[in-house]
């Protein structure tokens, strides 16, 4: 880790966060998870109506000031979806989709590097010991994104929410993949340090790459959720939309990733593919029986509540998303170990399903739940 310059991966906090054990996964089990993610992505794309009506965007709770950007990016293939992470429940009936983190999925460092390093450190690391092609697929995705937009300069700015070392580390992984794909000119900074102009010669996005030295960037990766931008920075959202329409900047993940990010799409998927073996029953109205309730744009497990078969609600995870529209999804029992910890599979998609990682927790899986590496047996 130190050779790579990744000091953050060996800090005490990270050691406590990454489990000291690995999930044993058969090759057939890994292939089942990867195939499920590929099938689910195809289903997501197939389910989006063309053209996209206002009623559909309203149902998914897409902010109205993003509708133009969503439609434009969906209809122009040069706006490329780089990656996302499927959260899956391994049930006795097979994998079931819990949700898709399509816009700003994290745990890239843990999945791509730390879990592999943990196997190497344990003397069990070889090319066949883990389902983990995440970095290579990210590199391919960046290369394809660049090829689709060959008329733009290969300059890439990566921004994240201020004060988040975790998000900065995720951007560092993406920057390494982009550099390997031919983006020679990159810069990482908090989103507050990015300057956006829609007028005159300064039109575009800029960052101070050195003291008093400002540079314009043609490509932008933002580890900032679209819906948060739309709500908290409406002027910036309008400017970014305008710059996209005139091709002064190309943004990933594209605005249309918000269609996949909205948990309202899970209800739509159930309508389009009723009783599909990879899906859990989901609705925008309360369900009978055992189910969960979660906000359409909730994050990190916040405001998720379990509803018992008799209608009683167990303790809700505290959070700031309780006022959002809610999704109701059939309960799925996660596999548990002898200590009662539940295991949730995360499968990264980057052009194809390419890497697996696990999270475990005695209760609802959140961003603070342990990350568990895996080893193929």
From TrEMBL:
Instruction: Give the enzyme's main class according to its UniProt record, as a single word.
Output: ligase
InterPro entries annotated for this entry? GSPS_pre-ATP-grasp-like_dom, PreATP-grasp_dom_sf
Q: For the Glutathionylspermidine synthase pre-ATP-grasp-like domain, which residue ranges apply?
A: 3-375
Q: Does the keyword Ion transport apply?
A: no
Gene3D superfamilies to which the protein is assigned, alphabetical: 3.30.1490.330
Q: What's the short name of a Pfam family annotated to this entry?
A: GSP_synth
Q: Which UniProt keywords apply?
A: ATP-binding, Ligase, Magnesium, Metal-binding, Nucleotide-binding
The molecular function GO annotations come to:
ligase activity
Entry EC no(s): 6.3.1.-
Task: Quote the protein name from its UniProt record.
Answer: Glutathionylspermidine synthase family protein
């Amino acid at each position: 880790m130190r050779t790579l310059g990744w000091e953050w991966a060996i800090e005490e906090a990270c050691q406590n966060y990454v489990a000291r054990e690995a999930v044993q996964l058969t090759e057939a089990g890994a292939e089942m998870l990867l195939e499920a993610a590929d099938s689910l992505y195809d289903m997501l794309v197939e389910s989006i109506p063309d053209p996209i009506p206002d009623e559909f965007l309203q149902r998914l709770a897409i902010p109205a000031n993003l509708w133009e950007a969503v439609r434009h990016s969906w209809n122009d293939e040069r706006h490329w979806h780089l990656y996302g992470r499927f959260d899956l429940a391994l049930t006795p009936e097979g994998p079931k989709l819990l949700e898709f983190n399509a816009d700003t999925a994290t745990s890239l460092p843990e999945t791509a590097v730390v879990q592999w390093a943990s196997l190497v450190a344990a003397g069990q690391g070889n090319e066949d010991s883990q389902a983990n092609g995440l970095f290579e697929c990210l590199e391919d995705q960046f290369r394809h994104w660049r090829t689709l937009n060959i008329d733009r300069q290969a300059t890439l700015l990566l921004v994240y929410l201020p004060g988040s070392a975790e998000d900065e580390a995720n951007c560092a992984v993406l920057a390494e993949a982009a550099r390997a794909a031919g983006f020679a000119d990159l810069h990482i900074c908090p989103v507050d340090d990015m300057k956006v102009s829609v007028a005159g010669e300064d039109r575009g996005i800029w960052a101070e790459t050195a003291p008093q030295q400002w540079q314009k960037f043609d490509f932008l990766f933002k580890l900032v959720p679209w819906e948060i931008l739309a709500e908290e920075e409406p002027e910036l959202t309008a400017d970014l939309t305008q710059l996209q329409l005139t091709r002064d900047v190309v943004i990933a993940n594209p605005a249309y990733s918000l269609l996949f990010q909205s948990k309202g799409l899970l209800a739509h998927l159930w309508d389009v593919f009723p009783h599909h073996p990879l899906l859990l029953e989901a609705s925008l109205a309360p369900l009978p029986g055992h189910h969960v309730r979660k906000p359409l744009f909730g994050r990190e497990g916040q405001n998720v509540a379990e509803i018992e078969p008799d209608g009683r609600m167990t303790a809700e995870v505290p959070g700031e998303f309780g006022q959002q529209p809610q999704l109701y999804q059939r309960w799925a029992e996660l596999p548990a170990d002898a200590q009662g910890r539940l295991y949730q599979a995360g499968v990264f998609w980057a052009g194809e399903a390419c890497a697996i990682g696990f999270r475990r927790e005695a209760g609802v899986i959140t961003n603070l739940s342990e990350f568990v590496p895996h080893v193929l047996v």
